[in-house]
Design brief:
The complex is a heterotrimer, with 2 copies of chain A and 1 copy of chain B.
Chain A lengths: L3 H17 L5 H5 L10 H14 L5 E6 L2 E6 L4 H5 L11 H13 L4 H8 L5 H9 L3 E6 L7 E5 L1 H6 L28
Antiparallel strand pairs in A: 1-2, 3-4
Helix pairs in contact in A: 1-3, 5-6, 5-7
Chain B lengths: L18 E2 L2 E2 L11 H4 L2 H4 L3 H11 L9 H17 L6 H18 L4 H4 L7 H22 L28 H15 L14 H14 L5 E2 L9 H17 L3 E5 L6 E5 L3
Antiparallel strand pairs in B: 1-2, 3-5, 4-5
The chains are: A alpha+beta, B mainly alpha.
Chain lengths: 188, 272, 188
């Protein structure tokens, strides 16, 4: 059982998560309190654990994503909620998803890297769309002639796809070409 | 924010039917495994030559590790020719791939000298490696698409906060940031051939006097704001006129009035 | 006690109220259900009552307003939540700055002008943010089909950046554009 002070910390954390409209980190949650009664990380985490437990039987859940904690509707209830939203969920083009996948798994990646894997030129619009969504950003420039931009994914990307770290991405299929037989091919 | 379909290397195809020189194409290449109606959306359906090759291989349950190059090459080239016949604008990548396949094919048909063969790589290897690499990311793209996603599979649970208007600090912006943003935009805009940004030597002062002239010449008390703009002058002309009107306003020589938001704007000379 | 069906109705009502950005009326809540299993008003109200009871001990409450029901933070917790916005340094997105720059240098500009220069769609949020800041406003409508709004910068914009006139905007000296010469080049 939480004592009264901890109960109050839990309540403040709870309302803030509901009011924030985005995930809040433990540090941001600590920042809600004035310096003199700011709880340490452990007590904030304790409050978060208590909330997770409290909502475990409810249709909304407290989840942790890359940039912190947020309340969200359990996915089994999404079909009902979708009806509230007039706009249909956006469907992304394959070109955009493939570009995103290459950046996500190969980061940091240059445009050239993306093009050599996909075998086609990368459209500027796709890169810009990804940047505008803040899923991808330039984190530097490769030290080769032309100094091409190096792209990487962001926390916004992880948050959007409910991931805590890049390690949570579905594993990339492995290449099998090494097994390719090295015997000279037969003329066909 | 919405993202429209941004695959801009997909060339819109206007042919409702497969036509050659205005005549419907009766015979399709025999070994074609793509249904004829898919031809129309050929460029939109495939993400490039690798994607098309993967399709051809998968569709025949061929082993990617042992591609019958001859067969695939022939099919691929038949496609390319068909596309050219119906005057579809083909992305250069498709032609490069055709050349690469033809090269592999010729290498494989060439009699090899024994001592060389041990060192020489199977000419298919590089292609196989690229196809597999592409396929990995193609799958990864599907995997990412399947991840639970905000506003499709997950929705934030929020509660209203009732307080008197929260004073949110407004972001600060430096003028430099605007200048560099515009330069950045212009640099990019140069890539769009259809969009030309021109700077013409138009003088604001000269335009100011022209506007005043127009206002005094015309006996009317008000002139519509838009009547000062000549679309034929292009954007810069419009900008110069606008700047001139602003300058005249500031100098207290004219007044710009508007009855209500979004209604017609009027310009009126201030007579002392 | 609610039976299973009523429990499910309550859950759907609950997630919808949490996911909607505005109050929902009983009728709107009924509309979430497909016709064949749409509960009557009475059952929706029952679910709302059950939720009100459930949240009576919690720091957020289910309140009825003129346009319907919504969850809100109990007022005694507002001071904490307000701190979320107080300290957060905000930054404008690149998309917003670019849009502002285009309006500043190319005014009056329509949304289409902005889109054709930037190469991507302009989000309504950006235009709204610029209008709210009173940096950009509609000065008229272009006399073409659809009569798109023409945007221009305002005096507030000039004041903010310490400019007397638009002519004081820094010249784009570092970039030189090739004029589209339609005439053959003249020998110098």
């Amino acid at each position: 059982m939480l004592n009264n002070i901890d109960m109050e910390i839990k309540n403040i954390v709870e309302v803030s998560l509901f009011a924030a409209n985005e995930a809040l980190s433990v540090m941001e949650l600590q920042g809600l309190f004035l310096l003199e009664d700011r709880p340490d990380k452990y007590r904030v985490r304790e409050a978060l654990n208590a909330l997770q437990e409290e909502y475990s039987q409810k249709p909304i859940e407290l989840v942790e994503t890359a940039s912190g904690y947020r309340f969200q509707v359990r996915s089994e209830y999404s079909p009902w909620v979708t009806r509230l939203w007039e706009e249909k969920p956006v469907k992304y083009s394959r070109a955009l998803l493939e570009t995103l996948a290459i950046v996500a798994y190969q980061q940091p990646a240059t445009r050239g890297d993306i093009e050599s894997i996909r075998g086609v030129a990368v459209s500027t619009n796709i890169i810009r769309a990804l940047e505008e969504r803040e899923w991808v950003r330039v984190i530097g420039h490769k030290d080769v002639p032309g100094r091409p931009a190096l792209y990487a994914t962001t926390k916004v990307f992880l948050d959007y796809f409910n991931l805590q770290t890049l390690g949570d991405l579905p594993p990339l299929a492995s290449l099998r070409y090494q097994q390719c037989n090295t015997e000279p091919p037969q003329p066909q | 924010m919405e993202i429209k379909n941004t695959s801009d290397n997909a060339v819109p195809i206007q042919h409702p039917l497969v036509l050659v020189d205005g005549q419907p194409l009766q015979e399709l290449p025999e070994n074609l495994y793509i249904p004829p109606d898919a031809l129309e959306v050929f460029l939109e359906t495939f993400e490039g030559p690798l994607d098309l090759l993967l399709y051809l291989i998968r569709h025949q349950n061929l082993d990617i590790l042992d591609i019958p190059v001859l067969k695939i090459t022939e099919q691929y080239i038949e496609y390319i020719e068909l596309m050219e016949n119906i005057r579809m604008e083909l992305a250069a990548e498709y032609l490069v791939m055709a050349a690469m396949l033809a090269e592999i094919k010729s290498k494989m048909l060439l009699p090899r000298q024994d001592e060389e063969s041990s060192e020489e790589e199977d000419p298919r290897l590089e292609l196989i490696r690229r196809l597999q690499e592409y396929e990995r990311f193609k799958r990864a793209a599907d995997d990412i698409d399947a991840l639970p996603r905000l506003y499709r599979d997950n929705y934030l649970a929020t509660a209203e906060l009732l307080v008197d208007k929260i004073e949110k600090p407004l972001p600060d912006v430096e003028l430099d940031a605007i200048v560099s943003a515009f330069q950045e935009v212009l640099k990019r805009a140069e890539n769009f051939s259809h969009h030309q940004i021109q700077r013409e030597p138009l003088s604001v002062t000269e335009r100011m006097s022209r506007i005043l002239q127009k206002l005094t010449d015309d006996s009317k008390e008000f002139l519509a704001f838009h009547s000062f703009f000549t679309p034929e002058e292009g954007k810069s002309g419009v900008v110069v006129t606008f700047l001139a009107i602003l300058e005249l306003c500031k100098a207290g020589l004219i007044e710009v009035v508007q009855g209500e938001p979004s209604s017609e704007i009027w310009v009126k000379p201030i007579v002392e």
